[in-house]
């Protein structure tokens, strides 16, 4: 026991030294220095692009990389159907100052919270209304690429190299490990996306080998395999009725898979003329609450919306200045949140395509959330629609007021990029997956004062 305590104390002191050095460098330079964050490089052995690349192989896991970004800034101007408010928004300006200038060491107690291996700061320019706390830390053997809660809120699934894992949130115990022993054992095989079926019986996994596997959780066996994508799969989502699963891949397509009738499968392809010369791989997919729409974020900076029934492309949302890595519908189905390598999130009013009117109207970006110091890699929306939450390569998780785009809280608890986040649908809990080989579960609760 003494050896365990001594090792824990040594690890804690090392983390505190790293945390202090990171804070000092961030305050001194106003940005993340190369000594803190890894160098950038595109996968496949190619030299790193000069602007807008995807995540580099992370320091702890040389074999892991995120999708590459475009080789340069987008050539097209902001689309006429997009309103970029980041330059004008007082909330966005406040958020930027907040991130740059707040030092936890000198902040009053009511505006900060420090745990044994995490800290949070709260915006002094707005009323503090939430508190955050660590609930579970789940170590993994590799980078945690994805996290998702079950619909009943009782379990968390994670994806890493070769395995998907399921944890009981009440006990903190690992209840299931899913690994395809028939897969090629040479090299890495990262699970990029995990998704519970609505009834909790199945887990879908999408991986680098271009296959979607549907697992029977109780039997720990593969029930079905969907094969059709030409490149690796980055994102999966079940429909709320559990009959359909949507996937997004680096092959410039999203696909709709019917779990009952394969004849209803659809390919939602990005085939505009400019996509022939631009990497338009799909990094993220989302399905509207009513199941009528699919949204996809792409490396070419565009968010696209398709009609599920017809497979018709309805809208292209232009406004981001770099690859879009994450998209989520709001719970009421009236809005769409996107997160980008341009370090911002955007809120799109999509009522023109959700309303009963047949008249075509423009979809606008009505809010831009600015304040992250590096790529926004994942976004989520709370079940009540109050909070937009984002995870970033700057290692932070940020809570934003969904009505004003004002930052409420910035949480630092990982030692590397926050690659994936998810919000529990039945409890006030947040899950994070990181390049530091940890998945963490946090609580966010109403703040009642010191």
TrEMBL record:
SMART domains in UniProt: WD40 (SM00320)
Record SUPFAM superfamilies: WD40 repeat-like (SSF50978)
Extent of Polar residues compositional bias: 82-91
Lineage: superkingdom: Eukaryota
Family: Belongs to the WD repeat TUP1 family.
Gene Ontology CC: nucleus
Region (Disordered): 1-91
This protein's name: WD40-repeat-containing domain protein
Compartment list: Nucleus
Comp. bias intervals (Basic and acidic residues): 1-29
Membrane-spanning segments: none
Placement of WD repeats on the sequence: 191-225, 226-267, 282-316, 317-350, 369-410, 411-443
InterPro entries per UniProt: WD40/YVTN_repeat-like_dom_sf, WD40_PAC1, WD40_repeat_CS, WD40_repeat_dom_sf, WD40_rpt
Keywords: Nucleus, Repeat, Repressor, Transcription, Transcription regulation, WD repeat
Keyword Cell division: no
Stretches with biased composition (Pro residues): 65-76
Keyword Lipoprotein: no
